[in-house]
Amino acid sequence: MPVQNLAMASDQDRRSSIIEDEGSITSAVLAAMGDTPSPRLREIMAAFVRHMHAFAREVRLTEEEFELGVDFLNRIGQATHDRHNEGILFSDAVGFSTLVCLLNNGQNGATETASALLGPFWRMNSPRTENGGSIVRSETPGPALFASCRITDPQGRPIAGVEADVWQASPVGLYENQDDGQADMNLRGKFTTDADGRFSFRSVKPAGYPVPTHGPVGELLKAQRRHPYRPAHLHVLAYKPGFKTLITQVFVDDDQYLGTDVVFGVTRHLIGRYERHDEERPSAADVVGPWYSLDYTFVMEPGEAKLPTPPIK
Ligand code: BEZ
Ligand code: FE
User: Does the pLDDT value for residue 190 go beyond 60?
Assistant: First the structure.
């Protein structure tokens, strides 16, 4: 054997990449990744490999199950496009998004938090809307909702100049990007808090809706005998330099799915009081029948203002 080849062989031996048996594969993979220059990538991938290998050993994964799993992941990718994000949906449906949210908020998971998962439907560039304005941009069923919101710091002092992005599904159960029957950006709007930290808007009372079930996540829910519903909610993303971006949801207090949200987003803190009114609303003569009001205060913590990557365009 030429001297050069002998040298290569001994390098490989030192890395132990000739696999003796099932028990030696994990350490071989960890050793092969050991020179990764980025310490964070090294840490994340080492933990990922350890846990993946432990998972396969724990369940004694069969080759058929492995193929099924790879096919499932591939189909998650294939189902994702500009208007739908199946990857986020999968992460949501197995509680991973909420876990990451709770780990990174409320003093790194130590205390209750006002944050909730982003979900797959936030769009950048929702229309700027004046305080008090309506986010109903095309005919939308459902009782009127008048929301009065305030944003404060942890000491209760108002924060002026916060950009508050609001989005919700129509009571037919779809976000506008899922539904050709709604105007572009229907039920989405971006507000700026006034000197007293307030913003307000008109909408319709949110209704519960099923998450999209046309893809592999829907198949999984069905196989697990789980319903696909989210309790009714409004989404808010509050952004101002100097404060940690607050991504949250405000749930409707009388919703039947509050205790069984398919994506595990409900914490007690996030249940709002949507109050029913049967009298006429003086400032809105066009309101017929009962209408609802919501008063809610959001608390932003000092920190870094960063926007997430929008899951859809
Ligand atoms: C949402 O609330 O928009 C949502 C969150 C997770 C999965 C699907 C939808
Ligand atoms: Fe939602």
Answer: yes
